[in-house]
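Report of the visiting student (M.T.), summer placement. My assignment was to run the structure pipeline on a short list of targets and document each run. The first record concerns Putative glycosyltransferase.
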Amino acid sequence: MKTVFLDITELRGNPVRTGIQRMVRQLLKAWPTDVEAVPVVYDSVREALRIISQETVEFLIESGDTPSMPLRDAVDQVNFLDDPARSPTVTLREGDKVHIPELFFDEKRTVFHRKAIASGVDLSVWIPDFIPWLRPECFPRIPSFHPYMHYLWLVFEARKRAFISAAVRDDFECRIYRRPSQGTIVTDLGADAINIGQQTFNADRKDLIFLGTLEPRKAQHVVYNAFIGRTRHPDLRLTFIGAIPEHGIPADFMPLVKSKRPDVRLLTEANDSDVAEIFKGARATVYTSQVEGYGLPPMESLYAGVPVIVRDNLPALVGKPDFGQLRLGRGDEEDIRSAIDIIGDDQRCAALWEDARRFPSRTWQAVARQIADWA
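After the run finished, the structure tokens were exported:
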């Protein structure tokens, strides 16, 4: 049986609920049984990869659906389950397969893997995006990403590269590597993790849903302003589902966060079951984020048959049919308000629902199968 060492050091050390860590959790969960997956982490003390227990892996997967658990508690539980002193290290040999499904900035870990590549280890990486380097203004608290160039050098030297979208691959080849790359695949991401179930339209559905962390680049405040400024369809409701970042609430978001309007609500601690329940009243979803590496929530919406309002440059949708979508060019208040007017019209909305059923979605099982066969 083929064996792949899965380096999930970042997930083990910082088990938060980012989009990237959601990718890693779903990959672990859906990994096919006919390819042996050995989850490992980089041990900087022993300068080696070490195997982590199955109990630890199971907790890391489950913690992704427990938004109310404080990060400190999650880290403490991981440290309790995963005792480095009891974990065997891995002696990598030429031809061994190592896969890194996460973005990270640890220079020692990068150096370790670059040495492994030089010694003949078959290392592959799954790349979510290059936003830190291409759009550093999205991270105002970090003065420069220049100190983290070592991750890019690892990507350059990896034997194989997988990109979550064609747009991310194009960013790599056109703006970073600046030449065509070999040994690459585009995986897309699975859209079935939330288990929403196929939805059907009826005119009683009145909820617009925006799923995503409250941060400037996702621009929920623009959607809020567009919604409260509408002059038609007063029976619509708007629900934001997303965590508040550790560094606090952006000033532009304060009217949204403090809103007492009966037609607007904010849920900061919703697990997948909560989201699935909320989708039972969804008329459409909104995801007009200004900068994204992929944009999974719209794909999950379309998988459930629910139309979406999106920006036309969303990486997840580049090169794909526009079934069930209202694609916006500017994504400003006027643009969004016009789309809300369309969604509010029963006949036009019903047509979008019918169209959404035709969108070609992927499952996490298919994505994990592709990664396992390729790595």
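The two ends are 14 Å apart (CA to CA). The chain has two domains: 3-187, 207-356. I thank the supervising group for their guidance throughout the placement.
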